[in-house]
User: Fold this.
Amino acid sequence: MLPNGKPTGEVNLEIAEVKLIRGNCFRLVEESMLDEETDQMTNELRLYYNLDNSKLLHGNECQFVVIPDEMGLFVKKLFNVYPSYIKVSDLCDDNEQVNIKLQIKII
Assistant:
């Protein structure tokens, strides 16, 4: 943050802290999927969420994002510390921080 309270656009992973918005709106699930090209079963991690799904819309199809296996550990740590914040640097070791920094820039 700049002194005027505006974001700088860059994330300093040494001091950045994150937390889940709500503890009951996410589910981490490992699902088996059939790869139609190879006819092989593969596993993928899905993070199901309902942030934009009010109680009136709970009959709608579940929303999810597929996350890489290595990101599953970070999500589990976020679940475990909820409702507290956790430093990004405490979520992972130095090698993993490089991957997170690259993914943050991509998003």
